[in-house]
């Protein structure tokens, strides 16, 4: 009750806003649980469009990612999909990257440019990743997102992507590290990937999963399940460090984070459960489309903000929420359809 | 220039992290318990239960 009062107090005592945050958290949680990434790329731009200062939008987005990652990691820990050696090196590189990214936000904020530049980087990043995921989904080669058949395979069965093989053969600066799945790679490659993704993480207030997971697969050569598990493990640390640093500057608003997490914890369970009954390939195209819609929405919102046009800012916000709602609904609907189909086909199993 | 700085101890920031961590653990345990209690009933309600069996 005290926590609820405190949360209501910090968001201006508005139950509508509280419900909005819980609902938005639910949507993001479903997407995070199903795709294994995308925990926060919608939260920070939505907060920016709602008029929160860049520091609060990024800091609160990061604290939300931290909480969601704790929940997801507890679940994946039991599956044994975490490479702690890889995670340890990634944490070291990411820590420095986050600090540089955070300092950059504070510096840009002093110049009054933070909101605009963060939004532009979001538009470019979401647009590029959205384009790649959509293209791969349409080509049917399974790129982007989590392969839900992954759990059935042995780690040694995973083929190392060509680009990762090239990096492993070219960059052989000692010390070399052997990862789970018998992958041998230079510690410097891991550090470089960690620093780059940490920089984006600190700058954008995201866990970095949607950048780091593909980076671990395509640049380091980690098997998909190891990349997913280790990524989640790392997000716990990077999220905690980032939240602490932003918390020092008063950038974490619990009135935003607590209700978002309340919704996302439930959503993550629904999304994770959905992975057992739905093949992700069919929905990846929606996911890519959602990233593209998010990128367009941030762009529209920024143009509206620049022109002082509130309607455009609202259109941007509605587009972000609408995209998340459509994809999350598609996940739930497809899951229920699959369950119905399964029960129809195997009536005797139920007995 | 974006310079590096060593984070100093800040009880307020640590409390914020602690609250988020505590909430995450409580929600994980709480929703887990709910899922075990009512999960199958909810699935039956949405999917249509044993009507096809």
UniProtKB/TrEMBL annotation, chain A:
Any one cellular-component term (Gene Ontology): plasma membrane
Main location: membrane
Subcellular location: Cell membrane; Membrane
TM helices/strands, residue ranges: 20-44, 56-74, 86-105, 112-133, 185-206, 218-244, 256-278, 285-308, 314-336
Source lineage: Archaea, Methanobacteriati, Methanobacteriota, Stenosarchaea group, Halobacteria
Keyword RNA-binding: no
Keyword Transmembrane in annotation: yes
Name assigned to this protein: Probable membrane transporter protein
Domain of life: Archaea
Keywords associated with the record: Cell membrane, Membrane, Transmembrane, Transmembrane helix
Record InterPro entries: TM_pro_TauE-like
Annotated family: Belongs to the 4-toluene sulfonate uptake permease (TSUP) (TC 2.A.102) family.
From TrEMBL, chain B:
Keywords associated with the record: Membrane, Transmembrane, Transmembrane helix
Superkingdom of the source species: Archaea
InterPro entries documented for this protein: DUF7512 (IPR055934)
Pfam family, any one: DUF7512
Chain segments annotated as transmembrane: 12-31
Name listed for the protein in its UniProt record: Uncharacterized protein
Organism annotation: Natronorubrum thiooxidans
């Amino acid at each position: 009750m005290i926590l609820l009062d405190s949360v209501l107090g910090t968001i201006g005592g508005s139950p509508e806003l509280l419900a909005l945050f819980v609902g938005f958290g639910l949507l993001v949680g479903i997407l995070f649980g199903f795709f294994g990434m995308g925990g926060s790329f919608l939260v920070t731009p939505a907060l920016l469009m709602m008029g929160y200062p860049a520091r609060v939008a990024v800091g609160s987005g990061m604290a939300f990612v931290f909480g969601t990652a704790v929940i997801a990691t507890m679940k994946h820990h039991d599956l044994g999909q975490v490479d702690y050696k890889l995670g340890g090196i990634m944490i070291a590189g990411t820590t420095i990257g986050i600090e540089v990214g955070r300092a950059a936000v504070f510096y840009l904020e002093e110049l009054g440019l933070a909101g605009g530049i963060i939004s532009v980087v979001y538009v470019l990043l979401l647009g590029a990743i959205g384009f790649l995921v959509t293209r791969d989904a349409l080509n049917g080669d399974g790129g982007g997102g989590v392969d839900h058949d992954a759990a059935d395979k042995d780690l040694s069965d995973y083929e190392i992507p060509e680009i990762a093989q090239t990096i492993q053969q070219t960059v052989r600066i000692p010390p070399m590290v052997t990862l789970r799945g018998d992958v041998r790679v230079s510690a410097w490659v891991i550090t470089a990937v960690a620093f780059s993704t940490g920089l984006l993480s600190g700058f954008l207030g995201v866990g970095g999963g949607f950048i780091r997971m593909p980076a671990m697969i395509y640049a380091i050569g980690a098997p998909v399940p190891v990349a997913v598990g280790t990524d989640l493990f790392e997000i716990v640390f990077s999220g905690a460090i980032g939240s602490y640093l932003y918390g020092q500057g008063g950038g974490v608003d619990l009135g935003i984070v607590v209700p978002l997490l309340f919704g996302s914890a439930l959503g993550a369970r629904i999304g994770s459960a959905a992975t057992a009954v739905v093949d992700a390939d069919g929905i990846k195209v929606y996911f890519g489309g959602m990233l593209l819609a998010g990128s367009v929405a941030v762009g529209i919102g920024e143009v509206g903000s620049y022109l002082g046009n509130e309607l455009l800012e609202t259109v941007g916000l509605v587009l972000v929420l609408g995209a998340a709602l459509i994809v999350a609904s598609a996940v739930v609907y497809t899951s229920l359809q699959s369950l119905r189909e399964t029960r129809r086909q195997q009536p005797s199993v139920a007995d | 220039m974006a310079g590096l700085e060593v984070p100093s101890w800040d009880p307020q920031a640590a409390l914020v992290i602690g609250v988020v961590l505590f909430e995450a653990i409580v929600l994980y345990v709480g929703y887990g318990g709910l899922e075990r209690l009512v999960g199958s009933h909810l699935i039956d309600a949405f999917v249509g239960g044993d009507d096809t069996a």
